[in-house]
């Protein structure tokens, strides 16, 4: 039975997870927070978020310093799930897990996430086993099979049907602005922002869509949904913002436009390898 649109919108508040990067010592890296979502695939459950978040490098404006990346693991926080009587599931409270980003038995450490098979050569990063994605500012990371989740917290393949975006389409961004949870971190609850498609292509960027307004810091990796007449469909993830007045050297926040990485072709045709 088709779920009413109102019910689908209600479930959006369960569709994102809070992410925080940790350093080599397992300590929180200040301001290194973002959002992500969990997708159920044939091979298991995967966490999706932005490549620029897990690496600390902007793939559209690379600035390579002298220090190696210090983002070594992710703290993933979401609402807890308890299964009580048969057929009864209770969602509330919080649960968290630490997911390593690298296989440290290798030198240099090897990333554990999947990303685009095609990359843009960059000698300094390639030397430390990092590859700059050609298509998508996105990665996916395998999650443990014993993680307790409800169907409301995962995105099934049936929710990823192809949909051709057009300017004016209504969009929902679901994430944690500045790491903020509507009900506090004792019950992680993301914020739902409403935007619209402003352009379906962006000069100099592959597979990115322009939105008529930006999200907030900490929403990188947020799942992005489009509302149709009958469904709310996942189309990709939020990647950041663009300032149209950049040439004036005056980045006015009011003019900022959002960017979304369109993954609708990635899942069936160009899987993250």
Describe this structure in words.
It contains three helices and 19 strands. With 273 residues, it is mostly beta strands. The protein has a single domain, classed as Thrombin, subunit H (Beta Barrel), CATH 2.40.10.120. The strands form five sheets. Strands 1, 2, 3, 4, 7, 12 and 13 form a seven-stranded mixed β-sheet that branches. It has a six-stranded antiparallel beta barrel with strand order 14-15-16-19-18-17. Strand 5 and strand 6 form a beta hairpin. The protein is globular.
**Percent in helix:** under 10%
Number of domains: 1
The total beta strand count reads: 19
Give the class-level CATH name.
Answer: Mainly Beta
Task: Write down the overall mean pLDDT.
Answer: 88
- Name the beta content range: 35-45%
- What gross morphology would you assign? globular
Name the descriptors.
single chain; 6-stranded antiparallel β-barrel; 273 residues; Thrombin, subunit H; mainly beta
How are the elements arranged and paired?
Elements: H1 5-10, E1 17-22, E2 28-41, E3 44-49, H2 51-55, E4 73-78, E5 81-83, E6 89-91, E7 95-100, E8 102-103, E9 110-111, E10 119-120, H3 123-126, E11 132-133, E12 139-142, E13 154-155, E14 170-175, E15 191-199, E16 208-211, E17 223-227, E18 232-242, E19 257-262
Parallel strand pairs: 2-13
Antiparallel strand pairs: 1-2, 1-4, 2-3, 3-12, 4-7, 5-6, 8-9, 10-11, 14-15, 14-17, 15-16, 16-19, 17-18, 18-19
Question: Gist?
Answer:
The chain has 273 residues and is mostly beta strands.
């Amino acid at each position: 039975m088709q779920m009413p649109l109102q019910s689908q919108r209600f479930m959006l508040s369960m569709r994102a997870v809070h992410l925080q990067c940790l350093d080599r010592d397992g300590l929180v890296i200040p301001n290194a927070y973002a959002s992500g979502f969990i997708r159920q695939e044939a091979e298991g459950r995967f966490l999706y978020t932005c490549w620029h978040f897990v690496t600390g490098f902007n793939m559209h404006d690379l600035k390579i310093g002298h220090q190696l990346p210090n983002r070594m693991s992710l703290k993933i926080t979401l609402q807890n799930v308890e299964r009580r009587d048969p057929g009864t599931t209770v969602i509330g409270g919080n649960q968290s897990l630490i997911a390593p980003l690298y296989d440290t038995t290798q030198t240099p450490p090897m990333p554990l996430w999947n990303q685009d098979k095609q990359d843009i050569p960059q000698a300094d990063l390639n030397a430390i086993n990092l590859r700059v994605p050609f298509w998508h500012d996105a990665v996916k990371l395998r999650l443990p099979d014993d993680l307790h989740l409800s169907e409301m917290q995962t995105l099934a393949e049936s929710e990823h049907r192809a949909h051709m975006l057009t300017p004016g389409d209504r969009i929902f961004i679901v994430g944690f602005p500045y790491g903020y949870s509507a009900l506090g971190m004792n019950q992680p609850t993301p914020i739902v922002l409403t935007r619209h498609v402003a352009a379906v292509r962006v000069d100099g960027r592959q597979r990115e869509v322009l939105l008529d307004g930006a999200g907030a810091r900490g929403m990188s990796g947020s799942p992005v949904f489009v509302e149709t007449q009958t469904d709310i469909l996942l189309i990709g993830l939020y990647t950041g913002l663009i300032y149209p007045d950049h040439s004036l050297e005056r980045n006015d926040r009011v003019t900022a436009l959002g960017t979304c990485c369109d993954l609708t072709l990635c899942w069936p045709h160009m899987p993250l390898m």
